[in-house]
Amino acid sequence: MRPNEVRQRWSRQEAAVCGWLSLGNAYAAExxxxxxxxxxxxDLQHGMADVQAIIGMLQAISATPATPxxxxxxxxxxxxxxxxxxGAYGVICPMIDDAAxxxxxxxxxxxxxxxxxxxxxxxxxxxGGSDYFAHADDTIVRLAMVETAPGLDNVEAICAxxxxxxxxxxxxxxxxxxxxxxxxxPTDPEVRAAIARCVTAAKTAxxxxxxxxxxxxxxxxxxxxxxxxxxxxxxINLMKAAMIAEAKRAREPVARD
Length: 257
Ligand code: 3PY
Ligand code: MG
What we know:
By secondary structure, the chain is an alpha/beta fold. It is 46% helix and 16% strand.
């Protein structure tokens, strides 16, 4: 089976860098896949894509060196199975509140007897290879998002769930849950302590820990803090920032000497 680049990085004790797709466009997905990232996550929660668009995006990512991931909108077993059948090699599930929900995530993405995933790998077989069924359970990456008050309270138990590869911190929702407002790089001491608790919980359980970041600079700092899966912002936010800067530059008068 085709390897998962994120697992390859982790096996070398290195952090994985993940591109993030909010635009819902296959061409953008292909471009991001060629930008030096280890994986690319198509966001079905807050991104503009529907399931059909996600399938086109997964096909586009398949033409690049990056491994395709999907963030599903919720803990929805049929949808988790569908995105895996469509070729996702990693799933990120938002708003996981407790160990029971983390177990449900593992079950939906693992074939019997260990789990409840229904058989019908469709594109997964084309992308992964003819031995997909034999290796899918151990190749797919499962990340539970910790970004709610109950999720934070139960983070140690979530990390301890067998089959969960790690947790993924949503700093914006976590800040909101703690009554501190939204920030992709929170400075509030309570939110910082909550994020540090997530890192400790994951490390103690021997699991991985990821986070969404507003930039590569913040992502690099997060790796130094112990994160081993970082997202240096979404393609649409990066496009917007670059466009604003270039439009401003275009209006600057030419310096004459
Ligand atoms: C959050 O910050 O809440 C996220 O879900 C980032 O993707
Ligand atoms: Mg969130």
